[in-house]
Amino acid sequence: MINFSVIDRDGTRKEVEVPEDINLNLMEVLKASEYNILATCGGMALCATCRVEVESGLEQLQPAGDQELDMLDMLPDAATESRLACQLRVNQQLEGIVIRISGDLA
What we know:
The chain has 106 residues and is an alpha+beta fold. It has one domain: Ubiquitin-like (UB roll) (Roll), CATH 3.10.20. Helices cover 14% and strands 24% of the residues. The chain has a 5-stranded mixed beta sheet.
């Protein structure tokens, strides 16, 4: 199992546990867990409405790709900890990380 923490927009923190072989991205897991994620583009890294802030564990993740970086560069309030949930595969790299949901509201 992969365990990580999610801090919702209202500050509520919950632990999330998903199977290692789930073969989804973080956006899909958050939506399935009933978090209010807009994800307008459906996970194509074209809208940034699934943006999260990695509060702990950023060093564990693969660096953002060019398409993700281009999208984040267009956001005036994006920080070095900002990532698009649609671009983060659910795998052992997510173990123990803490993310805060920060994308647009649905």
